[in-house]
Amino acid sequence: MKKILPLLVGLTLLPLSAIAEPEMALITVQGSGAVPTPPDFARLTMTIGSRQTAVSQAKTDVDNKVTQITAMLQKLGIKNTDINNAPLRIYPEYQAEKTTTELFKVEREVTVTVRNLSQYPEILEQAAVLGVTQLQPAELLSSKAEGLYQQALQLAYADAEEKAKALAKLSGRKIARVHQIQEQGSSPAPRLKMAMMEADSVQFGSNNVRADLTIQFELAKP
After folding, report:
1. Would the pTM of this model clear 0.70, i.e. be above it?
2. Sequential DSSP letters for 85-110
3. Which of 74, 96, 126, 154 has the fewest CB atoms in 10 Å of its CB?
4. Which of 120, 141, 162 represents a domain boundary (last residue)?
5. Confidence bin at 22 (pLDDT 50/70/90)
6. What is the pLDDT of residue 140?
7. CB contact at 8 A, 210 and 20
8. Percent of the chain at pLDDT above 70?
9. Given this model, what pLDDT does residue 8 score?
10. What is the pLDDT of residues 101-121, one digit of tens each?
């Protein structure tokens, strides 16, 4: 009997070690949600540049224009905290087949947050008069975007859940619970289109605060 006992123990443990849990049945879907919102403030970036034979001359020219633009913005009631002057950029320019510097290009970007959109046309006009070299497309934003994004997330989840239920039904199954959620991307600060309607007016459009989710649902056991 002493020789048989180890064999019996081994036979008892073998089936237990071979037991494996059944594979989990999953279904993966994508859901999207969008909430419309109009812009209520804008961010505008202006480039002021100058080309001169001496860096000091170009820098003085740029500094003078930036001072004038800043004064214009302050006159319109824009706070200093909403005006940001970037560091100077200096580029030496050479003519073809020459190694000596012919000109120096100096630039500075001024970014202004416009909280009163009715002032936007006047800022554009005054900036052009004061010699702004380049105006980048305005970034039109909504102060309500963060809260609206939470609503968009709820819509995206509901959209994904509805798709999962429909697909599970086609296979004769039901969804049981969420296995994994992945946020694909967000737009809490939408960039909205701007259209110039007349010389002295600007019409701002609207856009959607959007959320996208990828969700894995576990299927209920049949």
Report:
1. no
2. EPPPEEEEEE-TT--SEEEEEEEEEE
3. 96
4. 141
5. low
6. 86
7. no
8. 79
9. 40
10. 678 999 999 999 999 999 999
Number of CB atoms found within 10 A of residue 141's CB: 19
Expressed in angstroms, the distance from the first to the final Cα of the chain is: 47
Range of the domain at 183: 22-38+144-219
Helices then strands, counting H and E runs in the chain, come out as 4, 11
16 occurs within a structural domain = no
Domain's final residue, options 126, 141, 156:
141
Residue 34 and residue 153: Cα distance in Å, rounded?
8
Residues 53 and 128 in one domain: yes
Kindly state the tokens that stand for 35. Answer: 């909430």
What pLDDT is recorded for position 83? 96
Sign of the CA dihedral with 172 first, then 177, 179, and 182 last: positive
The tokens describing 218, both together, are 């576990």
Q: Strand 101-114 to strand 134-135: parallel, antiparallel, or no bridges (unpaired)? A: unpaired
Note whether 107 and 191 are same-domain residues.
Answer: no
pLDDT in tens, 126-160: 999 999 999 998 888 889 988 999 999 999 999 99
Phi, psi of 9, deg, nearest 5: -65, -40
Q: What is the mean pLDDT of residues 54-82?
A: 95
Helices (H), 19-109: 55-75
Q: 39 in helix, strand or coil? A: coil
The number of domains in the chain is 2
**Do 151 and 124 lie in a common domain?**
no
